[in-house]
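Before relying on records like the one below, remember that each one covers exactly one chain. Contacts with other chains, cofactors or solvent are not represented anywhere in the record.
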Amino acid sequence: MPPARKILHLDLDAFFCAVEVLRNPSLDGKPFAVGGSPKGRGVVSSCSYAARKFGVRSAMPMARALRMCPGLIVVPHGGGYGRLSRKVMEKLDSLTPYVEQISVDEAFIDVSDMPEDSETIARNIQTMIREKIRLPCSLGGATSKLVAKIATNLGKDSVDTDRWPNAILVVPAGKEPEFLAPLPIRAMWGVGPKSAERLEKAGIRKLGDLQTWSSEALESKLGSYGPKLKLFAMGIDDRPVSTEGREAKSISSETTFDEDIASRDRLHAVLLSLAQRVGRSLRDEQLVCRTVTIKLRWSDFRTITRCVTVSDATDLDQPIYVAAKLLFDKAWIEGHPVRLLGVGASNLEAGGEQLSLFSQSGDREHRVQEALDDLRDRFGSSKTRWGKEFSHSLGRWDDAEEEEGEVF
């Protein structure tokens, strides 16, 4: 019989918050949330563990979060998350080629070929990420991706802290059904609120209940997914750690405004800031783009997208902004209120210092761009702005909900 697989799931603890603490150490241990302004439709992107004790959670309206935690410190997105995420993945890649990144702050790692036990490997990884990149992380381990992910969540939930859980929980091979049985059905990775409600109405409230039902009964209740769910509840999941498809197909950033905006200058200022975020993400991923896209949603929720293919691939803020601005000016109806604005980049290629769209001085422009990136990493994106963006910042576009990295 072949030895059991050793799968780890890594989760960077409150990733956006941890990055902001690197930038501003005085936030450490305090209740704070990264996200949009509470004055309108801003939401919580990430919140510290001190804030979570008050019931604050990600995706919650920021105004509600402030009511639940009156002393909450609201921190706008500072940028640089993609760069640090890539550094973490590079460290994991240095250990084993079997790394599957599933989000900006999560990855599965197959360490079956490594001689140490899973807990030792997990502790070594946690120490490496903390010492080399200064970020906290938690890990779960099991013989499958499913149970490893649940182990990470359970390990983090078991730690009472105002800072970072730094949890490690490994489920021994053969103990998966015993580990899963007492957990609520909602703990199953992939079971959403509606599915959980259906299962609970059928009397299936714990994963142990799924273990005792026959496959036939589950199929009659839930269709073809029922027997598969039973296998998952037993901890049986043979899906491999996939190393394919990690290359991004597109990168985008969009903003939903607290109040609809009908000023061309203010909308241009937003476009510039969005272009800067997209450009930074391209540079973090060492990519260049050949297509620039804008997304525009009117006040009545009608949404349009427009794109253009540029002659020279680029990863620089200004060419992306120029292309986006040209698209916007052609699409926008004078005086018509805009609810959402987005900028995207696609047709991506491996980077290298490409010449910018409108200049032959690409090397110089990259040096300027690198200097700006360094300043933003050190002092935050709000402290280093292009002149046009700064001149219109009084229009309060920063009160918008920011959704970075979403694909249109």
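The first strand starts at residue 7 and ends at 12.
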